[in-house]
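Progress against Task 2.4 (sequence-to-structure conversion) is shown through the following example record, which the project officer requested during the mid-term review.
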Amino acid sequence: MAIKSEREIRADIVEVCHKIYNNGWVAANDGNVSVLIDEGIAICTPTGISKGIMTPDMLIKVDINGNKLEGEKELKPSSEIKMHLDILRNKPGVNSVVHAHPPYGTAFAVAGIPLNECVLPEIVISLGQIPLTKYGTPSTFELPESVREHLKESSVFLLENHGALSTGSDVFQAYYRMESMELFAKIAVIAKTIGNVNTISEPNVKKLLKLRTDWGMDTENFPGCRIGDKMINYDDRSHGWSSNSSINTDSPELTDDEKITLTKRELVEIIQSTVTNILKRYDK
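Structure tokens generated for the chain above:
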């Protein structure tokens, strides 16, 4: 793939700025976009400028520590540049970050609800669960620290009481990931309003994870998604997938009178296994 020039990258950033503004994902001077253009050098949107009127010459060039290198004298880098640069430093393969306030996704962030259920096949395959990060004061190191907790596995994040954040290999991938997240959130809200949000069955989620494998997508750093109290994800020990319930089966510290919670499926499997073993003994 051809490497884009700085001029082309600036044009791409402006295009994405106009998209998030026209989508109603930001108001006034909200939101920010950044792209890593070279080792230790990034271009980002300035603070105090509406994304709807952004032009290439308004963008600011900074070093990896956030120090301004180039840009109009009166303009300063985005106040959220710490969060962007921390991600660009610490997530391999990521060269762009988009932060906005898409209404449906932000509603989940304000309600304190992650988008982590196995609901839409496209989301299960492309994004997996979208975690809710702990609240952090904007423009401080609290936000990057809260995002870093989920950074290894996730590419899109809900920022508690703040908005949404997406990452990508380029600015368009970051943008489209946020677009997918926002549609997922919107569908979930509408489904809940008219009835119920049904999750995909566990066998079908396994099929979707196999598709990721067949398509050569990352299976090591993928967040999976939730069905009830289980998180479904890849695990080489479990032939490509794992199903982690709320029970910690590795813990040696359970006491005789301590309660253990089982799902109906797990209880049935235990009973069936026990009966089968008993019948085998009588057959001998």
